[in-house]
Amino acid sequence: MKILFNEHVKPFLKKPHFGFIVVGIILVIIRSLVNVLPPDLYGAIVTTTYYYIAGLGFALLLGYGGLASLGTGAFVGIGAFGLHYIYRFMEMPLLITIIAVIAVSIVISIVFGFVSLRISGMYLAIVTMGLSQIVIEIIKNIPNYASGTTGGFLSGGPRRPLVFMGMELAADSAVIFMAVFAVLGMMVVYNMITSPTGRALLSIKNSETAAQTMGINLLKYRLLAFVISGVYGTLAGVLSIMFVRNASVSQIGLTFALNILAAVVIGGTKSIWGILLGTFVIFGLDLAVFQRFQLGNYSIIINGILIILVVMFYPGGLIQLFGDMKKYVKKLRLKIRERIYGTE
Amino acid sequence: MEQNKLKIMIDAAMNAIHVNKHRKLALKINYLKGLAVEYEQQDHVYLDNALKKIDMYYEDEIKTYQKRFDGITPIDEKKEKALEAYDKKAYWARRKFKTKEAKQAEGQVLENILGQYDQIAVSKRNDYLKTLDEKYPHHSADSLRVYEEKIEARQAIRDQRKEKASKAYQKKHDRYLSFTESNAKKILKLTQQEKDLAIKIDLYNQNKIKIDELIQNDLETKLAKVKAESVAPKRVEQKQKKIHALEQKLTQVQSKKNVLSTKREKRIHKIHQSIKDVELKHNMILEKKLTQIQKKKEECYLKHVNADEANQKCINHFEIKAKNMTISYQKNITRKIDQLKKKTDNIQKTYQRNLSLISEKENDIKNLIAYHHQKVFKQHIIDRLEERIDLIETTSSMLNNTNIHLSISNLKMYFGGVRAVNDLSFDVKKGEIFGLIGPNGAGKTTVFNCLTQFYKATGGNMVFRNKESHLVNLYTKKTHDMITEGIARSFQNVELIWELTVLDNLLVAAHSLVITNYVEHMLHTRKMKREEKVLRNKGMQILKELGIEEYAFRSPYGLPYGILKKVELARTLMTDPSLIILDEPAAGLNDAETIELARIIKKVNKDFGITIFLVEHDMGLVMSICDTVCAISFGKMIGIGTPKDIQNNPEVRKAYLGDDSDE
Fold first, then answer.
1. Which B residues, 24 through 53, put their C-beta within 8 Å of a C-beta on chain A?
2. For the complex shown, is ipTM > 0.95?
């Protein structure tokens, strides 16, 4: 038994994949505790989860590719409104719908990428912002199918309940989907960043000339990162409409893209766990803490202050704080000991 | 000829496919070889590791029983623990006491006080030991036999497991052997394929010499034709100047023409007016005279009122006179008008003549301009043809002489009007260290950037013999393709990735060796993991060769500059290059580091058989390691040869030290 544990279980527990699976398990537990948990806390956790997926994709683009794009909102919109359109009006099965939406987002992100990825820096942000605005305008102007500014997913019009494998899904069942996609997403991103592809992206971010001399095709890898981030954004949109059963154009505009950017920057652009923290701070903190204890509308102010502090003092993100704190505590203990007992 | 062209194109395409296949095969063979090494290492240590693990698992269990067997009861253990805790407490108490006393006393006094304290502490400890003895009395165990049996049982289990492990290892070893066998077979098969491809490529190259000759002849005849048509091809600018001058002339001539026509019109107008004037004048005079005759006639009539005859006579006389007068006047007028008309005719004629002359001139100029224009156009054609012929010549010379690795001919790089590199040509031989020197701003780094396609050269050819012994025109390649052809470069200021460790930096460089694609990277397949291990081994090996393996897992951030330069060199080596381009490798190094670097560059050149092409300011380094040195100044070559030749070259001295005649 001990040998089995030592040989097989222990190495697995040390792997980061175990942590990702734990996240999935926790989400499933939360799903089963829906009646026990306070609804605002539950909502905060779920919101954090599906925006976390979008944040993960964006982190691959920003932290590894070094590309600041403001087009995340467009992909979330494609996910949400695409699912709505294909599922409700083309009457496809749910799984096929999700696959179709992802395919659409891949095509659009490739087109976006070819247009915008030849430039970088501030201009890329501007171009992607414009492109995302185009997508949003298109969504806005098909009121019949996209339901205009508010996508009444199951409210109004011909009702079509969500059916997956013959089962009718309640809103809370989306959490299971979230658990699956979050775990998969974390694993894929982790695999990506520890593989030659991730290193290639990092090298592009560090020095384009050096990357080119080492045989890295800039456009190919940037496009890859962009497509992956687009797919992640789309998944976030799909999950959000599956849970909320509603989507609004105002949610996916520039503000949303900036929020995702803030979440990734606050949490730490290169840390999978840091992004989870950052997303919670941006999207969940208000619901889970400020509104719950009726502390007033200070969350936005706190977010602003956090962004300033992080950018100035913790470029590695808030997740860096934990490591620093550990070091600090160690130092403090040594200091106190020396104060009391003197030096050796 | 058309068919031939098609055939040549098909052959070239086939050759490109062969080269690509060869490249992929080489990568795969390298991977398999690396895998074989990796598995061999694993096989070597597998049994030992497994046995060690089992030993470790059972060691703890056996230890406890061994203790019991040796006569240590659980009570004794408790006692030991208590004593340990006491000792720890005593240590901290002593430390506190010491710091407290150190504030008041120093030196010998302090030592005395501490000695007293220690004596008291020892006695206290003895007292505590006594109490412990009372508290935890020692009982010898009744039956040691039980423990012995237990130990034996454990050992038996352990041995069993070891046996099992060794059996498992045997199986694994068998598998490993079969794997190595199959791997070796695979490698053999692939190498055979590689050889076949190499033969094919070689054949193509040999054929290419003949075809190139044909093409060259063809092009040369074309060139001769074009040259014959365009007579003494001068510089394009001169032609353009000429054209400009001609155009100016043309405008002058055209203005002249205008002037002429206006002049003519004026003159004709004048003549017309003078005709009118003459007519008017004559008419007036005639009238006057006629009136005079009429008066005279009347006078005469009055004189001879009564004499009819005389009267008649008079009248007749005057009438005749008047008639004659009018006739003569008319004659006069017509004569004068005729004269004038003749004049106009003359003017018209001369004008026509002049006009025809001028228009002839105009046409001539126009023809000349067209001709010169044609010539300029032809100049472009000639340039292009010459470049193509040059390319074929360089490739064929490289095909004939397999010793040449890189051939640069007539390289030009203009930035607007600035000619950074102008008609530079030299050959780099295989396996030599080639140094490019020159004063500041001579265009050395520009040559490098042209070679690695960061700049697109304005003109000229750069032909490179790649790893598959296929000749490529570098101009047609992109920057990120350079590495697959076998050209690696380092940078003047180290461009490492600071967020990764040194070894990971090498792995980034191994990007061109990776045979898995990004889907496999996403899923972390077994193949990808194996490949990673192989590449890691390779990286470690290279670091070992360069003597910096101790830094493998450190971040390059904060390492000394000499080490960073070595890491950059290791990174270039990681890509399996056949030519390394070093951009000022000794910049920012001290003398000792430079000497070390020179040693390493020589070692790399010798051991790996890699051609090295370097730009350097440090003359000591260049002169000590280079086989051939090329000196350039303002984009033009001023000398090439062995370091000694260059040192004695008066032009190089002039370029570096200035003109001697000034002093």
1. 53
2. no
